[in-house]
Specification:
The longest helix has 10 residues, at about 40-50. Helix content is about 15%, strand content about 25%. The protein folds into two domains: about 1-320, 2-Layer Sandwich (Alpha-Beta Plaits), CATH 3.30.70; about 325-380, no CATH class. The chain is built from ten helices and 21 strands.
């Protein structure tokens, strides 16, 4: 196996497929604290891409209620159990990845769901559980020990995709211009090795065509060839339909060693690499996913650490007590249908002061300005939402 650098693990790892890194990488950040599980993203994706025969239970985008929600059933629990002990030594992962733990004769440690596992896309929906810590039950607060949160899932368009490594026909590849992972339908023969290998189970088999299919990252929009985009990279369908404004997408420049080129004016780089408020899902799998999450504030920390890695505590502290700049950048989520490649902050007056964790936090009405791939301004949003007073009669009475 080839040795590659995985910055999410803090070390090099073994990966059984050699390929040049893309020029740019399609990325996304989702704020789990804002999702209301309206499933608008799920329906937008399905009505666009997976409405045909053989795709009835194919959901490239789905929302799960954690900890009991899965699609397919038990997708993460089964992979985590197969992977065994997963230890972190500080920020360095000391356990094995799905590539390093692969059994003899296989490239990836995988799990193949049964057909029935795909039949329950809403299993566990809105089902809470008790706290993972030892807390005495409080009779007058019956829900004080209960928690759940919504996890938004699409293909992670990983830097080191397990599906790419496992395909015996090399029918799966990363686009060199944006790192989006695609399946060549003419090359695919439906062996389902990609379905077995993907730890996130985002490669799916279509029985009517006997091929595998997956999220294509709405690449016509990303590359600017969609008629609506007018040549400018724009957000995907799942993001365009997001009611809660939980998503931020973009393209980041990538170095030959798969790290991100330093660009503190790019909103995704700023949130992931500088503020470190957005984290990957199950980084211990080793695929270096390119979809990141701002973790939920109310879920037990041990649960979140095994899901998002050891940076959870620091990420949540920064999110709950944001810096002045971070608070302004967070306003850019779902603020424009054009992808934002650069941001600028215009400082405004102080508008208030609140208590967070027993300490004061000053609030300023700063303005965040987003620019598209051509450097043109596409959005301008302020921390304090503007209000307008209607003059004269409000109605006819």
């Amino acid at each position: 196996m080839a040795q590659v650098s995985n910055w999410q693990l803090g070390r090099d790892m073994e990966y059984p497929y050699e390929a040049p890194r893309p020029e740019k990488q399609f990325c996304m950040i989702m704020d789990t604290n804002k999702c209301i599980a309206c499933q608008s993203c799920t329906i937008a994706c399905k009505s666009t891409w997976t409405w045909g025969r053989g795709q009835e239970y194919m959901l490239w985008n789905n929302i799960e209620t954690k900890p009991f929600g899965f699609y397919p059933t038990g997708w993460d629990v089964n992979v985590l159990e197969l992977l065994g002990e997963q230890e972190w030594e500080g920020d360095v992962y000391a356990g094995q990845t799905v590539f390093e733990a692969a059994p003899a004769g296989e490239r990836v440690l995988g799990w193949q769901p049964d057909q029935a596992d795909w039949a329950y896309p809403n299993i566990g929906e809105d089902e809470p559980t008790g706290d993972a810590t030892e807390v005495t039950y409080i009779p007058d607060k019956p829900h004080s020990m209960m928690w759940m949160y919504y996890l938004q899932r699409i293909c992670n368009h990983c830097t080191y995709p397990a599906c790419v490594a496992a395909c015996p026909r090399q029918a799966i590849y990363k686009r060199p211009e944006d790192g989006i992972v695609l399946i060549d339908q003419e090359q695919c023969r439906g062996y389902r090795k990609c379905v077995e290998a993907c730890p996130y189970k985002k490669s799916m088999y279509r029985p009517t065509t006997r091929t595998s299919e997956k999220c294509i990252g709405c690449y016509p929009r990303v590359e600017g060839s969609d008629p609506l985009s007018k040549g400018i990279p724009m957000e995907t369908r799942c993001m365009a339909a997001c009611v809660g404004k939980i998503r931020l997408q973009g393209l980041v420049q990538v170095e030959p060693d798969a790290t991100w080129s330093k660009d503190p004016t790019h909103p995704l780089y700023y949130l992931v690499q500088e503020e470190k408020v957005a984290l990957p899902l199950y980084p211990q799998f080793g695929t270096q996913p390119n979809v990141f999450y701002i973790p939920p504030r109310w879920a037990p920390r041990p649960y979140l650490r095994q899901m998002f890695g050891p940076g959870v505590d620091a990420a949540l502290e920064r999110y709950m007590r944001p810096s002045r700049k971070l608070l302004a950048v967070l306003q850019l989520f779902r603020a424009s249908q054009k992808m934002i490649f650069k941001f600028d902050i215009r400082e405004g007056p102080k508008v208030g002061e609140i208590q967070v964790g027993g300490a004061p936090l000053e609030l300023f009405n700063d303005t965040a300005i987003g620019y598209d791939s051509q450097g043109r301004e596409v959005v301008r949003v302020s921390v304090e939402e503007p209000s307008f007073e209607r003059r004269g009669k409000v109605n006819s009475l």
